[in-house]
Every structure is written in structure tokens, then in C-alpha cells.
Amino acid sequence: MSQSIHVYGFVPPDEKFLKMKLVWNACEAAKVPVPKEVQEFFGGTRPDPAGVEFHLTKHSAVKPYEADMISGYDIDVKKLPPDVTLLRVYVSY
């Protein structure tokens, strides 16, 4: 079984986020395609209540960390974009 570690940052929902989410939800309810601009705003994934999601695993603030029987990432919070207020780190199998 393989696993991977993921690091995401989130910019909290703002007025634009809420408007885009309304469009996304309306399109789903009407069973019509979500406009490209809205899909791109959310990175091609369903809107997350935490806000706009950014994959940070390859960001300069995130460096791989390894030691005996340990692997993960060091995150230099000073290098993160200033509007990122939430980090999500998870392991997937």
C-alpha cells in the first residue's frame, strides 16, 4: 500500500468566493456545466467551505523532511502568501 502526504493552504471565503459558489451550486442544481471561469477559480474541484484551496506541496514555503522512520514536510509560515490563513496536511492511501 502506498501513501502520499499533501499540503494545502486556504484563503478564507470572501465576497467573490461566495458569489462563485452560488454560481457553482446553481449550475449543479440545474444540471448544466459550471462555467470555465468558475471552475478555474476553484481549481477544478468542488468549492471547499474552508475557502479557496492552494496545493502547497511544491511551494517554496514547503520543504520535504525525512529522518529515521519519518517523512513529512517543514512549512515556513513566513513564506506563505499573506492571505492564507488555514493549512491542511493529510495522508492519502
Strand content: 25-35%
Number of domains: 1
Mean pLDDT: 93
- Helical run tally: 2
How much helicity do the residues have? 10-25%
Q: What's the overall geometry?
A: elongated
Main β sheet profile: 3 strands, antiparallel
Spatial gap, N to C terminus: 7 Å
Helix and strand run: EHHEEEE
Which class of secondary structure composition applies to the elements? alpha+beta
Total DSSP E strands:
5
- Round the Cα radius of gyration to an integer and report it: 16 Å
What strand line-up does the widest sheet have? 2-1-5
Low-confidence stretches: none
Short description:
With 93 residues, the chain is α+β, with helices and mostly antiparallel strands.
Descriptive overview:
With 93 residues, this protein is α+β, with helices and mostly antiparallel strands. It has one domain. Helix content is 24%, strand content 33%. It contains two helices and five strands. It has helices at residues 15-30, 36-41; strands spanning 4-11, 52-55, 62-67, 70-75, 86-92. The strands form two sheets. A three-stranded antiparallel sheet has the order 2-1-5, with no helix packed on it. The protein starts with a strand and ends with a strand. The model has no long low-confidence stretch (mean pLDDT 93).
